Structures are given as C-alpha cells and as structure tokens.
Amino acid sequence: MWGMTSSCDELLPGTRRALLHRVAVAQAEGRAPSLVAAVARDGRMVWSGARSGADGQVPDADTQYRAGSITKVFTAVLVLRLRDEGLIGLDHPLEKYLPGTGVGEVTIAQLLSHSAGLSAESPGPWWERTPGTLRPTLGDVLGDRPVRHPAGRRHHYSNPGFAVLGSLVESVRDAPWEEVLRREVLEPLAMDRTTAQPVAPHAEGWAVHPWADVVLPEPAEDLGLMAPAGQLWSTAADLCRFAGFLADGDEKVLSAASVAEMRTPSVPPETGQWDGGYGLGTQLARHGGRSLAGHTGSLPGFVASLWVSVDDGVAAVALANATSGPPVGAVAAELVSIVAEAEPRFPEPWRPLTAADQPLLEVTGPWFWGTHPFVLTLSTDQGLELAPLEGSRGSRRNRGSSGRGSRFVGQPDGTWTGLDGYHAGETLRVVRRPDGSVDHLDLGSFVFTREAYDPGADVPGGVDEKGWRGMTSPEG
C-alpha cells in the first residue's frame, strides 16, 4: 500500500482532497519514489501532503529535497540587495565589479535575465554529477568559448551565468556566497531548513529506469562555484515562506517594489514559448489564465517547483526525489488553480475616502481620446486609473489602441506617472484654461477631451468648424 500523509485544516475538505488527489496522481503516474507538496495562502502554509512508494518513509513539509535552480532566485535576491544598497548598478558591465572573467562586457541585468548570451552549461564533465573541485576557477566554469549569442538579443538560459553572479556577490560582500545567503536571506525569513548541504530528515535522490520499475541512486555533489545556480536543499514549508516573500517582499530582505521588479518580464521568451518568460532571476508563466512567478529546478535525483499567483494570494510547492518523471512544474501550478478556483480570496472591503479632493473629483468621469471613450476614476489611495469605458457604443476594450488602460500615482509637481499598462512611466497632466477650468488631459502628447473632438478644447490639428454631419452620397 502506498504511504500517504496530509496535514493542515485551513482549507475546505473538498479542496484538501482535490489537492492530495493531484499529488497522488503525480507520484503514481510520474513513478516518483516520493513526492511532497504544500500550498500557502497570503504568505502562510495552509496545506501539505505527500505520497511515498516506501511504507514508513513518507516525507512531510519539513523533509529536505534538493531545490535545484530555485536556488537562482535566492542568488538574484542577493544581487538586488546589492543594487538597492547602491553598491552595484544592474545596467553596469560585470567588468566594473568582477574584472577578468572574459565576459565582462555583459551587464548584471542581462545575467539575471539569461540574456547575456552565455553558454547554457559549464564545459568539462557533467557539472551536476561531479564535484565542484573540478572547476576551481571561473575560467573553468566559463570555458574557452562562454559567449554563444550577442548580449541582450535573446533569452538563452545559462547556469554559468548564475555562477558568475554568485562570484559577484562574494566579491562585493567579501564573504562566501553561502554565508551571505544565510545571513541576509535565510535567517531573516526564518528559513532554517534551507541549507547548502543536506540536513536530516532529507530525501535520497534516485533515478528511475525508463522502462522498468527499478531505481538507481544518484550522487549528491557539492557544486563549488556552480552552487549559486543550483546547490540548495530546502523543504516545502520553507519554500512556502519564500513564496510569501516573492509576493509581498520583506523590508528585512528586499522591498515589495524590488521583488515586483524581479517578477517583471525582462526579455521576450523563446519563439513558440509565449506562455512563459523570465524576469530578474524568476521564471514567469501563464497557467489557466493566471500569471505565475517562481522557478522550477532539477538536479540528478530531484525535481522541484515553486509558483506564486500574486493576484490570488496563493502559492504552491512540489518536490520529488526522481531525476525525471513527475511533472512538478505543472503540479504546483495546478495546486494553485485548485485553491484559487475552489476558495477564491475575499476582496478588501470597499471604504469611502476620508476626505474629498475637489480638484481630483473635477477630473474624474468620462474622457475621449479622439472618438475612443475612456473613464478616469479616483481610488481610496488617491490614485487615478484611466481605462476604456466598457459598454459604450463601439467600445473595443483590450483590443487595439482603445484598450490602453493604466493606473497613475501623483507627483509633487501636480503631474501623474503611469504605473502599468501602455502608459507605464508616462506623464499625465491636467491642462487648464486661463480661468482655471479644465481644458483637456495631456498623456504623453495624447489629448483627452470631455467630448469626442470637443471644438472648445485645444485639440491638435483642430476640429472642423462645421462640426459633426451626415455623409451624403457622391455625385455620379
């Protein structure tokens, strides 16, 4: 009989059963010696479950598995901390801080987003199954031909690129990567079960024969300089804590704004892979209409995945001790969907403003860009949002130019700066007439008027003085 555990009663019974069923199917069909998963909601683990092929050896949320490339997200956090402290610039060349690598013309941002054009793997023996002592220097990690593509032109996943970033952290901090990670990330986030070396209880890594139900033990090597690309061991519980951090940030480690920057797409995905992308050290994916951020990972004997849906406030982790087989990336994404769809989060209560800002109230309501109707709204945080007016005649929301909606934040000079959407970073100005009344809105040179081509407003190109009219048939 298969071993099985499930814990936590934060979710409804039907949801818990659906989660455990998905884990059971993944373990059985993926032929994994064991598989453990967990779900977090609003930063707190609310469910965990596991299946095992060995009676009496069922893992739980405190059992360590190797996290593989999820390690890269931790390394990226360390790099962003250096940037936020003013010690490095993401657009600066690597050579400025870590000279002599031979790839110093690439920028730190390009390394973080896998757009530096470096090779995918380290030369020499298979680095994931051999000790790091075989690659004692960055020259051994990068090899004689480390650059495979022009920098900044395409996404090309590079494990050596993150080894370089780890060495950058060590150089700037003057301390080993592992020590910096423990001091600056793991301890502040109370991730005491995430380590560079396995600490019991931990799973053993196995390879499962492709055509027979037999297994082979996999080696667990210390990766040396390649450690920042995939060394860490962690647990489902610890990775749930980390998922909460990736959603909301933590001032002890990295601000919410910097974490959001990590989740922002940095380069276009490879051709034919438009359901995914990459930010600064984080993978991005679309699953079931949801935007997910996190990372997958694999090393011989282990596969891992962490996904968080910021909009839903739900994250999931899936870990298995098999070189291949269980699709843990899809499993974690599906666990997010199960919870988000069965138990959607409650919206924050609507609350009225405590005070009315009359100049802002004056500019709310419908506006027209040419003949396209928009509406400008004021929220309780004193922010503005400009969006296409739904339900209007001829409205084509989210299609073409009329779908360009954005939120705006006020600036000290009275202007507004776009936060997202088409107008992110653009300036919105309220243009007034000499008597103080509002003439139009100026948004990056686009003019928005209260009426479609308002003859009384300053519309570029002017408005025909004869006004709107019918169209007569041309004479034959």
Automatic annotation (TrEMBL):
InterPro entries noted in UniProt: AmpC-like, Beta-lactam-related, Beta-lactam/transpept-like, DUF7586
Keywords: Hydrolase
Domain of life: Bacteria
Keyword Hydrolase set for record: yes
Region span, Disordered: 387-420, 454-476
Residue ranges constituting the Beta-lactamase-related domain according to the UniProt record: 26-339
GO MF terms, alphabetically ordered: hydrolase activity
UniProt domain DUF7586: residue ranges: 357-450
Name assigned to this protein: Serine hydrolase domain-containing protein
Taxonomic source organism: Streptomyces hebeiensis
Lineage of the species this protein comes from: Bacteria, Bacillati, Actinomycetota, Actinomycetes, Kitasatosporales
